[in-house]
Specification:
Blueprint: E1 7-12, H1 27-31, H2 41-52, E2 57-62, H3 71-86, E3 92-97, H4 104-110, E4 115-123, H5 127-132, H6 139-151, E5 155-162, H7 169-181, E6 186-191, E7 193-195, H8 199-205, H9 214-230, E8 234-238, E9 252-255, H10 261-278, E10 285-291, H11 296-300, H12 305-314, E11 316-323, E12 332-336
Parallel strand pairs: 1-2, 2-3, 3-4, 4-5, 5-6, 6-8, 10-11
Antiparallel strand pairs: 7-9, 10-12
Helix pairs in contact: 7-9, 9-10, 10-12
The structure holds iron/sulfur cluster.
Iron/sulfur cluster (SF4) binds near residues 15, 18, 22, 25 and 27.
Length: about 325
């Protein structure tokens, strides 16, 4: 399940300082911001804080490669964020960046601030996939960056993508396993959305790339969620969030553009876990299903789809789905009636 300890106050910094051109990237479309105005950051933070009430929050520099932007700007943004930490109004600072934008100098700078987590766009640990995406770094860069961050005591969040050029379900499972082994405490999973104006969109038009169908995005995302869950790595998110959306044909030309793709993937994993707990034999049974607190709707599935699938596949009628505080993640308990 998606695990969130803090609210994020997201400050989107689109494409600033990024000389790369990953085939899937159109940061301007994703972040919804054409420009970035540093003078508005305080106002954005204040507005967000005014809506949060008592919730603990972190300032999150997302959208581009934060540690690759102009150094003075980066330090000035960190200074601003740190003032909010020092005054006790936020609990920490987090940021997203690329593996090759982490080095000892960056680690040294970050060590002067209350950086709670760095989200690293690992995307894949298959060098063929990284090359096909023109990502501009290899897996070795990810390994080094993860090691430097974990050695520095920063929480590592691994971001990976599903359905990239040359990726397979197997390479994606391996990527998830690697992210766990690199010491990530949490992960984000992004099924690939093909944005107009990107190289990936051109590749799709030229039939050099087949965009993910929603169904494949769901099953392949569920495969990697399974890996993260079994390794105790929390899932912060599956799929782009609605503000990064999507759905409009003007912005998107294919791929996993379903607004509830994350929810569908999580429900798919629940279906697999429940089926496994019930065993393969098809026999009529009535059961009570227990899941972790907050997981009932995902276990049941949209329009109770998991319950119908269980009945069709195994003859099982789920009489009730209840929360069990002893359960976490995607673990389930079955009680036959
Ligand atoms: S590094 Fe990030 S911001 Fe830069 S092109 Fe790639 S995905 Fe886009």
């Amino acid at each position: 399940m998606e695990k969130r300890r803090h609210a994020n106050i997201p400050i989107f910094i689109p494409h600033l300082g990024c000389p790369n051109d990953c085939v899937f990237c159109n940061q301007r479309t994703i972040s919804g911001h054409l420009d970035f105005d540093p003078s508005k950051v305080v106002c954005e933070i204040e507005t967000a804080l005014s809506t949060l009430g008592d919730r603990k929050a972190e300032i999150a520099f997302f959208g581009g490669s934060f540690t690759g932007i102009d150094r003075d700007l980066m330090v000035s943004l960190l200074d601003t964020a740190q003032r909010y930490v020092d005054s006790g109004r936020v609990t920490g600072i987090r940021m997203s960046t690329r593996p090759d934008y982490i080095d000892s100098e960056i680690i040294d700078i970050l060590s002067h601030y209350t950086v709670s987590a760095v989200e690293l766009g690992i995307q894949s640990t298959d060098d063929r996939v990284l090359a096909a995406c023109r990502r501009g770094h290899d897996t070795e860069a990810s390994i080094k960056a993860c090691r430097m961050l974990t050695d520095a005591g920063v929480d590592l969040v691994g971001q990976m993508m599903i359905g990239l050029p040359k990726a397979t379900p197997e390479s994606e499972v391996k990527t998830a396993e690697d992210i766990c082994a690199f010491g990530a405490v949490a992960a984000r999973v992004y099924p690939t959305v093909v944005f107009r104006g990107t190289a990936l969109c051109r590749m799709a038009k030229e039939k050099a790339y087949t965009p993910l169908s929603d169904a494949d995005a769901v099953t392949r995302s569920a495969d990697v969620l399974d890996v993260f869950d079994r390794n105790g790595v929390g899932i912060l998110r599956v799929g782009l969030c609605s503000s990064e959306n999507l759905s409009s044909d003007k912005e998107v030309c294919g791929g996993a553009n379903h607004p509830a793709i994350g929810e569908l993937a999580m429900s798919e994993l629940f279906f697999r876990r429940i089926s496994k707990a019930l065993g393969d034999e098809k026999k009529p049974r009535n059961v009570i299903l227990s899941v972790a607190p907050g997981a009932v709707s995902k276990a049941v599935g949209q329009k109770k789809s998991n319950l119908s699938r269980l009945f069709e596949a195994l003859g099982v009628r789920v009489e009730k789905v209840r929360e069990d505080s002893e359960l976490t993640g995607y673990n389930v308990k079955i009680q036959e009636l």
